[in-house]
Amino acid sequence: MTLDQRYPGVDDLRARARRRLPRFVWEYLDSATGQQATQARNRLALDRIGLLPAILGGPKEVDLSCTLFGARLPVPFGIAPLGMSGLIWPDAEGHLARHARAADIPYGLSTVASQSPEDLAPHLGDHGWFQLYPPKDETIRKDMLARARAAGFKVLVLTVDVPVASRRERQVRSGLTQPPRLTPRLLAQVARRPAWALGMAARHRRDGGMPHMRTLDKYTSGAAAAALSSTAHIGYLLRTAPDWSYLDWLRQHWEGPLVVKGVLDVRDVARLEAAGVDGIWISNHGGRQFDAAPASIEVLPQIRAATQLPLILDSGLEGGLDILRALACGADFVMFGRAYHYALAALGAAGPAHLSDILRRDMAANMGQLGVATLPELRAVTQVDLS
């Protein structure tokens, strides 16, 4: 059987990933915060968006390409940054960066990933995005931007929706701490997942078998980490809750495209435009930060009506049809975080390419149903409220 026959959808990859990961790792990847209402709201809101199929349109040769920040891309989706990505699968950041380079799509590296910009430089393609969790110290800030630029990252993403650590109760119940430590409880979970355990042991032999946030090694001694909560991490010792003056500073010190991630309020759009940002990333952090937030897709149309800036969207997307829904509602591009990590945990190095193939096939099939051949045509598709 081919991969497509065994794992034709994101749900199949998610199910296999759950079987291959220790429970504490699965809970870190899959969980949200609070009662997980925002996470559920993302799915419900997407399912309410119907698109009216077309008939008698004749054959179509589908073109999935788009333009973003002056670059022509083969598809309108990329790989979102995920903190401690390397906890999900050994060399996760490397696998994802190499796939992004081969597929010619954006790859986002988090400040709090388990590999540094320098680690990823040999594997980075032309569309590297660096997600900044904002350091308070200006010297560290300047140095971090210089490191990202020197490594080849072209787009800077300022995350603005994490002013404090969220509680993430499922994660806490699993026994995961920050930094991750292999307690007897966690070791019992690891013992039941040999593929993950052997890969981690080989990859992180010098770190006790667990990854850590390598970008921050240069700036921290780890001495104060014990005072942090179990859902915070060493990055909280360095970073601040950014304000508008912080954004102005970044605009002055970053020469490439600057994107602000975590926007949900249309009232912020005009000020973001005035600050000189190049793109707005609509996101509720996949429900991981605040459990009373609206679904990202719900606020997309009003933000689209308020700006001509490129709009990027994430949170809750699970397949090619969801991509089409987002584009029809006004997004220019979408990013997948959890889904690419499900794919890695399910299939290892082969996972990211298989997921990209799933998304492309799903988009093409559904565009055929809608009678459209190019992405701009989606804006004219009739929407139907399925609630």
List the topology elements:
Blueprint: H1 3-6, H2 10-20, H3 23-30, H4 37-47, E1 49-51, E2 66-68, E3 71-73, E4 77-79, H5 92-103, E5 107-110, H6 117-120, E6 128-132, H7 138-151, E7 155-159, H8 169-174, H9 184-191, H10 194-203, H11 244-253, E8 258-263, H12 269-274, E9 279-282, H13 296-306, E10 311-313, H14 320-328, E11 333-336, H15 338-347, H16 351-370, E12 383-385
Parallel strand pairs: 4-11, 5-6, 6-7, 7-8, 8-9, 9-10, 10-11
Antiparallel strand pairs: 1-12, 2-3
Helix pairs in contact: 2-15, 14-16, 15-16
Detailed description of the structure:
By secondary structure, the chain is an alpha/beta fold. 40% of the residues lie in helices and 12% in strands. It has 16 helices and 12 strands. The strands form 3 sheets. It has an 8-stranded parallel beta sheet. Helix 12 (269-274) links the parallel strand 8 (258-263) and strand 9 (279-282). Helix 2 (10-20) packs across helix 15, helix 14 crosses helix 16 and helix 15 crosses helix 16. It is globular. Residues 222-233 have low confidence and may be disordered.
Features:
387 residues; alpha/beta; eight-stranded parallel sheet; 12 strands; 40% helix
- Oligomerization: single chain
Overall mean pLDDT stands at 92
Percent helix: 25-40%
The dominant shape is globular
Strand order of the largest sheet: 4-11-10-9-8-7-6-5
Number of helices: 16
Radius of gyration: 20 Å
The largest β sheet comes out as: 8 strands, parallel
Amino- and carboxy-terminal Cα gap: 38 Å
SSE order, as H and E? HHHHEEEEHEHEHEHHHHEHEHEHEHHE
User: Which band does the percent of strand residues land in?
Assistant: 5-15%
